[in-house]
TrEMBL record:
This is Endonuclease/exonuclease/phosphatase family protein. Residues 1-20 form the signal peptide. It comes from Salegentibacter maritimus. Residues 28-273 form the Endonuclease/exonuclease/phosphatase domain. GO terms for molecular function: endonuclease activity. The keyword Signal applies. It holds the Pfam family Exo_endo_phos. Keywords: Endonuclease, Hydrolase, Nuclease, Signal.
């Protein structure tokens, strides 16, 4: 009997420690491609269930999405019943593309959230900055991880595709806003930045103490085709590099795996961008050991 009890206590201890050790967060940046009627076989109606299933299958905890029109937002809400979202359109309210944050509603509590515009007047709805072709936004939230009892900030954005000055100034603005809003708390920044890793806006973000999750891992922790924008091109021709990123700031939350999901099935793609999925872990304090 004593031997049986000892084995039982050992199993309980192992299971308890396994649960305790699972302090990870699965985070993603996902440009879903707006619902253009000109996308042929890759039109939204052909992709939406595949796209939503990928989020469910990989058990993503938080998704920073881009290019989401309001009808797409409603589709995703329906297809992702275990998630809530926050965010508004770049033209205000339900108008224009959104950069929403979808989060697992059972795991997170939203303590605060808002949207600001990437312009000289970030509080002005639908304001267009510098040489940008379109209004651009940042949606952010302060989350409490109910599982771990810890808080962090998640920012999500989509930089302009044409304005070089706008991208440079947007990097400066978002870095300043992160410092202003989040202070010294952990931060994750996701987005389609429309910039290469050797660009000036990228260097600005790094200089402002944001870290690229891709760079702080070894090759065994990375699974990627080497680029994120596929442009519906089955031959993967032309220049190929990362333009979608997940940055982070602080020591309490750090990346352990990096994955670019190359969702392609013949001529069909999950989106014209491949999603970036990064597994993060909370730093275990000495009190928890």
């Amino acid at each position: 009997m004593k031997k049986i009890l000892s084995i039982a206590f050992l199993l309980i201890s192992i299971l308890g420690n396994a649960q305790k050790a699972d302090n990870s967060l699965m985070l993603a940046s996902y440009n879903i491609r707006w619902n253009s009627p000109d996308d042929g076989v890759n039109k939204w109606e052909n992709r939406k269930e595949w796209l939503a299933k990928s989020i469910r299958f990989f058990e993503i905890d938080i998704v920073g999405a881009q290019e989401v029109t309001y009808p797409q937002l409603m589709d995703m809400e329906k297809l992702l019943p275990n998630y809530h979202f926050i965010g508004e359109g770049r033209d205000g309210g339900k108008k224009g593309e959104h950069s929403p944050i979808f989060y697992a509603k059972d795991r997170f509590e939203v303590l605060d959230s808002n949207t600001f515009w990437l312009s000289e007047t970030p509080k002005v709805t639908a304001s267009k900055g510098w040489d940008a072709a379109l209004p651009r936004i940042v949606t952010w939230a302060k989350f409490k991880d109910k599982k771990e009892g810890k808080t962090f900030y998640f920012f999500n954005t989509h930089f302009d595709h044409k304005g070089a000055i706008a991208r440079k100034e947007s990097a400066e603005l978002i870095a300043a806003k992160i410092k202003e809003i989040a202070g010294n708390e952990p931060v994750v920044l996701s987005g389609d930045f429309n910039i290469a890793p050797d660009s000036a806006p990228y260097r600005t973000l790094i200089k402002r103490q944001l870290e690229d999750s891709f760079l702080n891992l070894d090759k065994e922790q990375i699974y990627t085709p080497g680029y994120t924008f596929n442009s519906w091109d089955i031959t993967a021709s032309g220049d190929r590099y990362r333009i979608d990123y997940i940055f982070y700031k602080g020591e309490d939350l750090f990346p352990v795996k990096y994955h670019v999901l190359d969702g392609q099935r013949g001529e069909r793609f999950i989106s014209d961008h491949f999603p970036v999925i990064v597994k993060f872990e909370w730093k275990v304090s000495s009190k928890e050991n």
